Amino acid sequence: MDPVRNPFAPGAGQRPPELAGRTRELDAFEVVLERVARGRPERSLVLTGLRGVGKTVLLGELRSMAVRRGWGAGKVEARPEAGLRRPLSAALHRAIRDLAVRHRAPDRVEEVLSVLKAFALKANPKDAKLRDRWQPGIDVPAAVGRADSGDVEIDLVELFTEVAELAADVGTGIALLLDEMQDVQAEDVSALCAACHELSQSGAPLVVGAGLPHVPAVLSASKSYSERLFRYVRIDRLDRSDADRAVIAPIEREEAEITPAALDTLFTVSGGYPYFVQAYGKATWDAAVRTEISEEDVRLASPEAESELAVGFFGSRYERATPAEREYLRAMAELVEGKDEPAPTAKIAEYLERRPSSLSPARDALIKKGLVYSGERGQIAFTVPHFGRYLLTQD
């Protein structure tokens, strides 16, 4: 069929043509927005799940919902090698600009921006030369004595207070959307939890985070009360009916059809993971020669989809691993026979004929790289669906 009309969209964070299976999460967030609008306290939200289940897409959808309700909203993607102060400043700057168009007191907006600038400038090292100092692009003088102590926990509380008051002035809220939450540095995790806790009863900016399944453990290790501070929502693969809808709806909009047998095969090869549904759906559309997509079309297209996944989705991650880390990954894959299941760390050591302590550096490095996670003590699992199956095909 015409590749120009191909409705499927496999891409990192790219919204699929049919956002199926996420009605429960969207409805719950609508309740959160309404509660905050009425001045009722509400916990911040954290989405957790494997890669490829659509956390980033859902985060973007939640941001759009907040903006449609007149909220200020900014998005941050955490990086393990960078602190949170600088990207957080940029996200809140955008959120404040959203509110500024509705606020009738420009002087008040400038006051908040001056506090934000003071907070942002502390991202510069103390000994940085003037020419090397980062400037946040906020065209007001920096405040003095407010959010500029250099202690990120103190500064974040003061900044959140200012931003929350600005939002309250116009009868709305502020949403801070934080992706890849497991990569937030320990100091910043502690500060974020403390700031949310300090302001949880006073209309603080609503933090909506997304990350890998072990994010709750990361937050809990920083602040024990984080279990009560955030509401965790597990995002998983689509069930059969939602996976079918994610395929059928965009195909029908292009005046084409797909047979039940083709849907069966497509669900089997994709496992219901949203990213894989899009990848196999796109390849199948391109392979089909008639407007009714058949089971044979899916089978013919599968090698092409798998080849693209091997390079862009699996291979790019595998290449980041050292030889010792690849050995660990391969042992995991062989122990679970390529299935999306956790492997006992003791069994991995036994399989490799190594002492468990000697494998700790490789395991810890893989966790930091976001390739594996530990959902419970003594267990380790891949963060990427079908990664074990991919590894078993590699020499």
From TrEMBL:
<dbReference type="GO" id="GO:0020037">
    <property type="term" value="F:heme binding"/>
</dbReference>
<dbReference type="InterPro" id="IPR041664">
    <property type="entry name" value="AAA_16"/>
</dbReference>
<dbReference type="GO" id="GO:0009055">
    <property type="term" value="F:electron transfer activity"/>
</dbReference>
<keyword id="KW-0067">ATP-binding</keyword>
<dbReference type="InterPro" id="IPR036388">
    <property type="entry name" value="WH-like_DNA-bd_sf"/>
</dbReference>
<dbReference type="InterPro" id="IPR009056">
    <property type="entry name" value="Cyt_c-like_dom"/>
</dbReference>
<dbReference type="Pfam" id="PF13191">
    <property type="entry name" value="AAA_16"/>
</dbReference>
<feature type="domain" description="Cytochrome c">
    <location>
        <begin position="168"/>
        <end position="356"/>
    </location>
</feature>
<keyword id="KW-0547">Nucleotide-binding</keyword>
<keyword id="KW-0479">Metal-binding</keyword>
<dbReference type="GO" id="GO:0005524">
    <property type="term" value="F:ATP binding"/>
</dbReference>
<protein>
    <submittedName>
        <fullName>ATP-binding protein</fullName>
    </submittedName>
</protein>
<keyword id="KW-0349">Heme</keyword>
<dbReference type="InterPro" id="IPR027417">
    <property type="entry name" value="P-loop_NTPase"/>
</dbReference>
<keyword id="KW-0408">Iron</keyword>
<dbReference type="GO" id="GO:0046872">
    <property type="term" value="F:metal ion binding"/>
</dbReference>
<feature type="region of interest" description="Disordered">
    <location>
        <begin position="1"/>
        <end position="20"/>
    </location>
</feature>
